[in-house]
Design brief:
Elements (H helix, E strand, L loop, with lengths): L1 H18 L9 H21 L5 H22 L7 H21 L1
Helix pairs in contact: 1-2, 1-3, 3-4
């Protein structure tokens, strides 16, 4: 169950990453409120996951999911370019998450 909590936390972190830009530097109240709510919503399942998964592993996987998800959505939704360097960075992030999972198991 801890890994499901961790996957949920990572998915919410991806949503949170997408909620930052619409705040326009935290000058728009409703987007800012949503941004803060998503940040809190991402942390809660992370704390549940850390009951059984070592903190270093859980945090590495959590941030890896967030980074990979944000990069992927940037390319697919926001039309950001996928350069060879960004593709390599994404592969390294995913590889790091897999490795952290194997080491933490």
């Amino acid at each position: 169950m801890s890994w499901l909590w961790l996957l949920l936390a990572g998915a919410v972190e991806v949503a949170w990453s997408q909620s930052i830009r619409p705040t326009e530097g935290f000058t728009r109240p409703l987007p800012t409120l949503l941004c803060f709510a998503l940040a809190a919503a991402a942390i809660y399942p992370l704390t549940l996951a850390m009951r059984e998964i070592p903190a270093g592993t859980a945090y590495a996987v959590f941030t890896g999911i967030g980074a990979a998800g944000a990069l992927t959505l940037g390319v697919l939704v926001h039309g950001e370019s996928l350069t060879a360097a960004r593709a390599l960075a994404l592969a390294l992030i995913v590889g790091g998450v897999v490795l952290a999972n194997l080491v933490g198991a």
